[in-house]
């Protein structure tokens, strides 16, 4: 097999997230976790939050200094957390930081944009 073909196969088999990071959770899985009582963390800005957020979510903006400390003040580190942002970029960063701080974290695939596109409710 040619090297290019091998590399192409490897690229398809390798997830786009880091090997030590779990894949983002799909909406259906997130809904089950919410029903089971997972903590919900929105890492967007206050202006984005006002446009709509998941019910029972807590807002801790990722871009603020001391993100992990603020999240620890809002969340129980012993309980799982579902984290989301607008489309998934910031929440992936937040999830990594929270995991490093000892949290069990699930990252909502596609963020609130995918959630709303699927017709799921938000509150304002």
From TrEMBL:
<feature type="domain" description="Rhodanese">
    <location>
        <begin position="34"/>
        <end position="124"/>
    </location>
</feature>
<dbReference type="InterPro" id="IPR036873">
    <property type="entry name" value="Rhodanese-like_dom_sf"/>
</dbReference>
<keyword id="KW-0732">Signal</keyword>
<feature type="signal peptide">
    <location>
        <begin position="1"/>
        <end position="18"/>
    </location>
</feature>
<dbReference type="Pfam" id="PF00581">
    <property type="entry name" value="Rhodanese"/>
</dbReference>
<protein>
    <submittedName>
        <fullName>Rhodanese-like domain-containing protein</fullName>
    </submittedName>
</protein>
<dbReference type="InterPro" id="IPR050229">
    <property type="entry name" value="GlpE_sulfurtransferase"/>
</dbReference>
<dbReference type="InterPro" id="IPR001763">
    <property type="entry name" value="Rhodanese-like_dom"/>
</dbReference>
């Amino acid at each position: 097999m040619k090297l290019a073909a091998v590399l192409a196969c490897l690229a398809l088999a390798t997830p786009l997230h880091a090997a030590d990071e779990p894949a983002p959770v799909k909406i259906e899985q997130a809904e089950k976790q919410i029903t089971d009582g997972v903590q919900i963390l929105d890492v967007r800005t206050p202006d984005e939050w006002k446009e709509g957020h998941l019910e029972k979510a807590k807002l801790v903006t990722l871009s603020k200094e001391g993100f992990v400390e603020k999240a620890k003040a809002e969340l129980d580190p012993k309980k799982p957390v579902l984290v989301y942002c607008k489309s998934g970029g910031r929440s992936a960063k937040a999830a990594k930081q929270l995991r490093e701080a000892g949290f069990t974290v699930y990252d909502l695939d596609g963020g609130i944009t995918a959630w709303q596109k699927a017709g799921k409710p938000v509150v304002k």
